[in-house]
Amino acid sequence: MDSLYDMSSDSINKVADEVRACKRCRLSEYRSNAVPGEGANSAKLMFIGEAPGRTEDTLARPFVGSAGRVLDHALARAGIDRASVYITNVVKCRPPMNRRPRKDEIDSCIPYLMREIMLVNPRIICLLGKSAHDALLKGSFREHRSRYVKRNGRIFFTTYHPAYVIYNNKLRGMFVSDIIGIKKMIDAMNE
Ligand code: URA
Ligand code: SF4
Predict the structure, then answer these.
(1) pLDDT for 18-59, tens place per residue?
(2) Ligand 2 in contact with 132 (CB < 6 A)?
(3) How far is the CA of 26 from the centre of ligand 2 (A)?
(4) Where are the domains of the chain?
(5) pTM of whole model > 0.85?
């Protein structure tokens, strides 16, 4: 983000429009649809995933495929309304074969994420998986997992990526309890 960035004239809709037209990296060549973040524009809680998958690429919405079902289930168990949070990804276009986004692709796309964070201004940012963790926090995913870390006046919570827990029931339980823990933290902040 350069210092000429003027937040007062920016908006989530503007970010989304720019994402839809973006050709800043090679991932634009493979996509059916770019996938901007979605949700409440002043959400207290933001989720950040890695990149859109096939269903997301088709529907132009984040976390609406199998990983989305795991996230939705955890939100329901925690009593969090999906419409009350903001959900986005580190890169907004699906990498071919669902490979990990590359460093240069993340570098090209991250200004959109930084704008989303500044505009939504969430109390807690939940990092889903190692890609989101490594894009936002220095240090190791394993050390930060299931913990709160304060950086630059923001609170980050790191947990597994929902797609990663699909075939592992133990991790799935931990994922759900992590999300329940976030809900408790947000409720405590509101008291
Ligand atoms: N996985 C992600 O990281 N993001 C999505 O939007 C869907 C699956
Ligand atoms: Fe643009 Fe991000 Fe899509 Fe690359 S991944 S084309 S930077 S929106």
Answers:
(1) 999 999 999 999 999 999 999 999 999 999 999 999 999 999
(2) no
(3) 8
(4) 8-190
(5) yes
